[in-house]
Amino acid sequence: MPDRFPPGARVRTRTGDPDGHTRLPRYARGAVGTVVERAGTHPLADERARGRAGEPRGVYHVRFPAAALFGAGDHSVVVELWEDYLHEVDPEEVPS
Fold first, then answer.
1. 61: pLDDT strictly greater than 90
2. Which of 60, 71, 91, 95 has the most CB atoms within 10 Å of its CB?
3. In which region does residue 46 sit, left (phi positive, over 0), alpha (psi from -120 to 50) or beta (all else)?
4. How far is CA 40 from the centre of its chain?
5. What is the pLDDT of residue 90?
6. CA angle, 56 as apex, 50 and 34 as ends, to 5°?
7. Are 62 and 43 in contact (CB under 8 A)?
8. Integer Cα distance of 62 and 58 in angstroms
9. Is the Cβ–Cβ distance between 86 and 36 less than 8 Å?
């Protein structure tokens, strides 16, 4: 399975609040980060929590500025996220 997002790609997380289980933390929803590396291929945890096997999908380590997630902090936070939660950021978009 090819990488959908190469290291260095800017991505934005989804903003939705789905019913049931999700591994997309609420604090990271709608945030813009940078892909650090691919972290493997695994079935989507959301589907597994609903009793579905699910097809393997790419999982990525994504770095976010702490201030973008929590409103303060001069460090960064790396979150492990399935590709289903990510959208490529338009290169023309102003960083948030």
1. yes
2. 60
3. alpha
4. 13
5. 82
6. 100
7. no
8. 12
9. no
Q: Given a cut of 90, is residue 17 above it in pLDDT?
A: no
DSSP reduced 3-state for 68? helix
What is the rounded CA–CA span in Å between residue 85 and residue 92? 21
Secondary structure percentages of the chain, helix, strand, coil, to 5: 15, 40, 45
Q: Report the distance separating Cα 75 and Cα 44, nearest Å.
A: 29
At 67, the amino acid letter reads A
Two structure tokens written together for 95: 């960083």
Q: Scanning the structure block, which residue is given the tokens 């492990």?
A: 80
> Counting runs of H as helices and runs of E as strands, what totals does the chain give?
2, 5
φ and ψ at residue 91, rounded to 5 degrees? -55, -25
The structure tokens listed for 78 are: 């790396």
> In degrees rounded to 5, what are phi and psi of residue 58?
-65, 140
